[in-house]
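lol so apparently i was supposed to do this last week
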Amino acid sequence: MSYQFDDGYPSDLEAKRDILEVGRRMYAKNFVASNDGNISCKVSDRTLWCTPTGVSKGYMTDEMLVLMDLDGNVLRGSWKPSSEMKMHLRVYNENPSVRAVVHAHPPVSTSFAIAGIPLNRAILTEAVMGIGEIPLAPYAMPGTQEVPDSIAPFVKTHNGCLLANHGALTWGSNVMEAWMRMESVEYYATVSMYTGNIIGQANELTCEQVDRLIERRKNSGITTGGRPLCRECSEKDTCRFSSCRSGGDSGRSQPEKERECCCGHHSSEEDEVAQIVRSVIEQMRRR
Ligand SMILES: [Zn+2]
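anyway here it is w/ zinc ion bound
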């Protein structure tokens, strides 16, 4: 995406245009209900445009948008910015190369966030190459400092994260990239759901396949995204690639680390749930 000015920042007009467009897409795709969600876009090293609170993101107009500085002071606009903007500001303050942030509550990603399951299995080539693993930020009380603190560890190393019991957050070098990452996260979550409890099987990619996909991602200029868990790592913790172990661990939340299996998807608790689901399906079939 190229902008009018060559400093890499969009003009005010371009930033506002992209925010309104992503707001419409977000609402049309059912990624937000009611007045939920928020979008922001930097227009200089210290300033950014963001969405207001209390309005549907599908029906925003130009004059509703708010110009802020990185400390959270409103510089222009009469609408109130969302309290979730603290999370956006933290992303920008942690990683100056990020130029746009999108926050939504897409139903499948949010369900994974509620279940406490990060999107970290190498099952989808496009996801490995495009967004990498999507870690889970621990639960944080809305509106408090806990929220920005919960996402801070992932901002430099990943392209987005799930917010426990809340939703999803993605970032990128412009609004469209941050938005497309949000779409990719929801798609990754949807496929993970279908292949999880609904279909009941997913063939994870091998470590070598993951290595090659990550190489491709690096070649396309994306250095963030972490490393999803490959088949060897998932099966018996026998992965011979040390890069897999160390990388795969990077974005994991605390509860994940406590589980027995390195992949976090074969804990005894989850086996039990899978067993119950299977027996219910079996009984329904018999009727
Ligand atoms: Zn939210």
